[in-house]
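Homework-ish question, so no full write-ups if that breaks the rules, but can someone show me the predicted structure for this set?
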Amino acid sequence: MGILERKEKQRDEIRKMILEASMQLFVKDGFENVSIRKIADLVEYSPTTLYIYFKDKNEILFHLCEMGFERMIASNLALVQIENPIDRLYLLGENYINFGLENPEYYDLMFIQNAPMKTIREQNLGHWPNGDIALETLKHIIQECMDKKLIPTGDVATISMAVWAVAHGLVSLAIRQRLERLVEPDKVVQSMHESIRWMINTLKKA
Amino acid sequence: MGILERKEKQRDEIRKMILEASMQLFVKDGFENVSIRKIADLVEYSPTTLYIYFKDKNEILFHLCEMGFERMIASNLALVQIENPIDRLYLLGENYINFGLENPEYYDLMFIQNAPMKTIREQNLGHWPNGDIALETLKHIIQECMDKKLIPTGDVATISMAVWAVAHGLVSLAIRQRLERLVEPDKVVQSMHESIRWMINTLKKA
DNA sequence: AAATATAATGAACAGTGTTAATAAATTGTT
DNA sequence: AACAATTTATTAACACTGTTCATTATATTT
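A: Not a homework solution, just the prediction itself:
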């Protein structure tokens, strides 16, 4: 069935084209300014054609979200070389904050917007492809810290949740201009890093 | 100038009518489904009339946001009766999580959406009326904990930030269906409360 | 009563996601 | 090669969105 395979490939390439164009608009004009019509203009198709390749806009956003996770996971490649899990946790936190501040649009889609989760539910994928990978990384590090008795033993999920919550809380409040209400604008980034470090420090001593 | 005063009053009453109608739609259909036209239908005015009473939709959302803060502040009235600031901090955390889970639409507007912040900047109010009050409550409690040597001394803003970040992180991840990726759906709420308690516990011991 | 200021509106602009009907191109079968 | 079936692409349209402009109706002031 060589002909079917080729068709599949062509289909995938057009899908990729559409996603590339979406991403381009997305990082330039921001999440809110990406429309089906603008994407269609860029790939030089009619707006309705996009609906042949994707079910709806949410599905496109879902794939952009997954691309965001790929970037984030890539930014964590250096982690494997650190043998001390606590140090790995510090770097994970640093990276998380940096990623969020440097890619606010991606971060928005990955952790704030509803759209990607809607697609996961509607197409009942049952899992969150790249999102679950990222969470596993965190849980794995926490588990290793416990195994090596570097932090007090406890429920891995609950502690992972608390750590994630601090990081996400900081980033999401920052990109939504809420933190500047608590700390002077030019001190926000520094304070964020101090907060996450302080969190891991107290976790260590607890 | 009694006539001008009466005019002002009438104006304020219509503004209030519009906000009441907006709120009604808002808590029923959710943030995304509130439109100028639907509000206008409800108050039986033409859509354009709303622009006589409010600059734009963002301004309406800003006022809804402020109403949300009033609710939240009201839910914290019991705090003043607790003399131990650490216990007050525990309750503040509990209340924050409960408020977020019970009023996800308000929470969204207060801490996630950009719209209200846009109005604050555009009309350069210079401050965030009710938001700043809520933040002062937190900072004040943290300060008192330090004064009474119940937690280690440090920068009040930074520590307030970390505490706020955990609470906001938990609530915002929860209402955006992200936490169920880490903990079973029916355990989410319980784990959230455990996380915030754990956070304050470690803060105490640190 | 006439002039002025305020309040309210209908029509329209420029945009949004999405669908149904239709045309064009490609593939499968005789 | 010719015809039928399928896939791909498009045009037109629906039902919305926030917002502005010109116009009308209503009060208020002179």
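Now go work out the reasoning yourself. Hint: The domain at 1-54 of chain A is CATH 1.10.10.60 (Arc Repressor Mutant, subunit A).
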